[in-house]
Specification:
The protein has 97 residues and is an alpha+beta fold. The strands form 2 sheets. It has a 4-stranded antiparallel beta sheet. A two-stranded antiparallel sheet has the order 1-3. A hairpin with a 2-residue loop joins strand 4 and strand 5. The relative contact order is 0.25.
């Protein structure tokens, strides 16, 4: 989001919530190639304000096989510096080899 717009009175200092979702996607693609991503979804759970420090984490919660492909299901979340969850989601990632 444009910082000038985010700082204006009309947005009350809110930053883009998609940034938290994009952070979760970058977390995944830093761990596995984008081509391994089979499913990805996030739910926005709170406003991200300018100046918030967002931390994205993921936890493997299931290992499975589908059509001969080994996969892991990962729970994702993005929290601010106060521990408030701003985004939650899930991804399905194919494992190589």
């Amino acid at each position: 989001m444009d910082q000038e717009l985010a700082s204006s009175d009309s947005s009350k200092g809110a930053a883009s919530r998609t940034a938290a979702g994009a952070g979760c996607l970058r977390l995944l693609t830093g761990w596995a190639p984008q081509t391994a991503l089979r499913e990805f979804g996030v739910r926005f759970q709170g406003i991200v304000h300018l100046g918030n420090v967002i931390t994205c984490t993921g936890t493997v919660v299931e290992k499975l096989e589908r059509a001969g492909e080994r996969l892991v299901r990962i729970e994702l979340q993005a929290t601010n510096q106060y521990g408030e969850r701003k985004t939650a989601g899930e991804a399905l990632v194919a494992l190589g080899g």
